Give the backbone structure.
Amino acid sequence: MKIGVFDSGIGGLTVVKSLLHHQLFEEIIYFGDTARVPYGSKDKNTIIRYAIEAVEFFKNFELDMIVVACNTVSAYALSEMRESATCPVIGVVDAGVLATANALKDKKSNILIIGTKATIASNAYEEGLKKLQFQNLQSTPTPLFVPLVEEEIFDGDILTSTLHHYFKNKKTPDALILGCTHFPLLSKTLQNYFGEKTLLIHSGDAIVEFLEKEFYFSKKYRDPKLKFFASENPDALRKIAQKWLYA
Amino acid sequence: MKIGVFDSGIGGLTVVKSLLHHQLFEEIIYFGDTARVPYGSKDKNTIIRYAIEAVEFFKNFELDMIVVACNTVSAYALSEMRESATCPVIGVVDAGVLATANALKDKKSNILIIGTKATIASNAYEEGLKKLQFQNLQSTPTPLFVPLVEEEIFDGDILTSTLHHYFKNKKTPDALILGCTHFPLLSKTLQNYFGEKTLLIHSGDAIVEFLEKEFYFSKKYRDPKLKFFASENPDALRKIAQKWLYA
């Protein structure tokens, strides 16, 4: 099995980390649109246009599947990508919704969704969860988390103030959906902030669960091949990949 | 006089505000590359490529001059833009260097330059100031200021922690160069942090000074025409312009 993983930039590496850990693929082709990142503050039509261009790029490889690691793209452009693609396209939003539903037995559970402005404005997680009878939903865009992670600020005063800024009026949730692939790098801090009882939903782990449950993936591949492409400076992406994937 | 103002996104509006205030032009055509913003974390070659595309866009208008409001573009792509353009191209870095030199009589003055990662890595301000015999230079990238301004966080705990994070080891400067067009929106907070003795160098005011001193601009135009273009969602840009320019 040969898979393409698409993200607006480097965030999708957290999904690749989960895929590598579970050895579901023989070869992973990663494409980050680093020349135009971030997507999370951009317009729906722009996001769709860029996503279709990514599908065209992936046509250079004979892929068995495309995983959209970016929550913003998954929220806005999945159906358009499917129309253009010649292989299945799956996204982290659907996977995150199912992982949340599988983890929470009580439909009255309080679920908090965080993500970029665009992802939260799309209501994609809410719509998915409501279809599965979850009604107790809160959501808030937390766009500052992205540059904080990229600045490698994972704790300390700035982050404490930022957490307070975003969450001071929020009830402690039963589940927190990390609706942006940068956010798993803040897992420890978020878990400390909300406490051990809050379940964190991680896009990468959700995709693995989705593939195993919905697509019956079970075969394991040792030492999967990994190739990185970027719309600018692929060397910088490869360096960050070394750090994030093998740290 | 008809001028083009180019920025990676919305930041250049602070420069337009200065130009409007001083009534130097009959017509201002603003172009923000909102579909690919920000440039400050991107690669040199990408920045040059995008800047040349902006020059091509401006060829749709018969311009007398292009003002590069973006510090990152001014630092990396000015000579390439000049090669492509059919009118003069001036940038905020040269203007900021001259404004600083004009304001500081003592060549031993301590100057702190802040900007995006790309602008600071270019050393463009340092090189310009060293040519004018200023040697006491410090610089630091302050990339978090950009999303903070875009989140409309202009003071409070997050900003206080961020100021401490960036400036805790910096001497109080005689002049602080706001080397990113977003930063004038933090002027009040930065002035409070460093104290009244620190002179803030503002790209927009620097450009006006540059045009008046170096280009002998003196004619005033009442009610200049203003047109906004963006590579995505021009309506959003126009809304922010209404807010920033006329607030």
Q: What stands out?
A: The radius of gyration of chain B is 17 Å. The mean pLDDT of chain B is 96. The CA atoms of residues 130 and 244 of chain B lie 34 Å apart.
